[in-house]
Amino acid sequence: MPENTTFFRNKLIAWYLDYKRELPWRKTTNPYHIWLSEIILQQTRVAQGLPYYLTFIEEFPTVFDLAAAPQEKVLKLWQGLGYYSRARNLHASAQYISENLNGNFPTNYKGLLELKGVGDYTASAIASICFNDPEAVVDGNVYRVLSRVFGISTPINSTTGKKEFKNLAQQLIDREQPGTYNQAVMEFGARYCVPQNPQCEICIFNERCEAYNKDLVSSLPVKLKKNKIKKRYFNYMVLLSENGETVLNQRTGKGIWQQLYEFPLLESKKEVSEKELIALESFKCFSEKIEIDSISLYNETSVVHKLSHQHLFTRFWIVEVSQIKQKTIPYSEIEQYAVPVLINNFISNFSVFKN
């Protein structure tokens, strides 16, 4: 165990009690509220996630309300947060808790891990905050703080690194007030020990911080390089009929944006011209169900939508038609559907769909 364990723990908690942000989920130990906040804040900044949290609490005051809601409503309210599997898992776990546990959350770390979409970090946060279970959280903020203060260069995304940091975090946690400690270390990492340009000169740990004293702040934590980013080329066919109808298809397969809606999609191997688009085999299949009057490119410069492992180069094609031989929806109802933020931005900007 590091020599300055007690110092670190006490200093951190004292700082947190004096300077913590006032956030709604910090005023309760209700596991439903804590669970909601933790799922929403995964891979999301507090400023972005807070309005979503407040909306979900208002729309679904209890886990029973969330469980009873249609999945499409949950996805619609989640729109803009990304990583939509989080929303689907949230809904599935709400149903499980409601139907199988009578609305009662598991009261310890191991039980919480059984919930869909709940991993080590989320289970540790809920268990410590709601049930005083001394399980240490380890997320990006915690990796950053611990690697710098204690001078650890083991890659944080390696199997060895994950085990090493979890063990250290478990040694550091205050067993009398684990929830307070966990929130303190996350808060400190999010606000002061930030990835770029941390405030080392005024840091409460700078006298004992290994990274600061050895000029290693910019090189810690260490992370192994990710796999190469895949480039994909999306061509969305925005159908406009004479009687104010268009087409949205639901993505049902595994992969990105499962269960969300989108315009008919033709994927190509590169950016294509109108002539090249029409020559695609997928376009021939697409055009069998419609009678096309005209096609025009909406955005000459592709919208680049960056996901964790792939970048989507997207163009929207306006397809005016006289007949559509498939299920359609009125323009006026398009905003009722849960769509990826990429599609939502187009809908918001395209004058035909504006109210």
CATH fold descriptor of the largest domain: Endonuclease III, domain 1
Number of helices: 15
State the domain count: 2
Oligomer, anyone?
single chain
Provide mean pLDDT, rounded.
93
CATH class of the largest domain: Mainly Alpha
- Tell me the Rg in angstroms: 24 Å
How much strand? 5-15%
Low-confidence stretches: none
DSSP helix fraction: 40-55%
- Please write the string of helix (H) and strand (E) elements: HHHHHHHHHHHHEEEEEHHEEEEH
Question: Can you give a write-up of this model?
Answer:
- This protein is an alpha+beta fold and 355 residues long.
- It folds into two domains: 5-219, Endonuclease III, domain 1 (Orthogonal Bundle), CATH 1.10.340; 230-353, Nucleoside Triphosphate Pyrophosphohydrolase.
- It is 42% helix and 14% strand.
- It is built from 15 helices and nine strands.
- The chain has helices at residues 5-19, 31-41, 46-59, 63-68, 71-78, 85-100, 109-112, 120-131, 140-149, 159-172, 178-191, 210-213, 274-279, 281-287, 341-349, and strands at 230-241, 245-246, 249-250, 261-262, 265-268, 290-297, 303-306, 310-324, 329-330.
- The strands form three sheets. Strands 1, 5, 6, 7 and 8 form a five-stranded mixed β-sheet that branches. Strands 2-9 form a two-stranded antiparallel sheet.
- Strand 7 and strand 8 (310-324) form a beta hairpin.
- Helix 2 (31-41) packs across helix 3 and helix 2 runs antiparallel to helix 8.
- It is globular and about 75 Å long.
- Keywords: 4Fe-4S, DNA damage, DNA repair, Glycosidase, Hydrolase, Iron, Iron-sulfur, Metal-binding.
- It catalyses: Hydrolyzes free adenine bases from 7,8-dihydro-8-oxoguanine:adenine mismatched double-stranded DNA, leaving an apurinic site.
- Its EC number is 3.2.2.31.
- Adenine glycosylase active on G-A mispairs. MutY also corrects error-prone DNA synthesis past GO lesions which are due to the oxidatively damaged form of guanine: 7,8-dihydro-8-oxoguanine (8-oxo-dGTP).
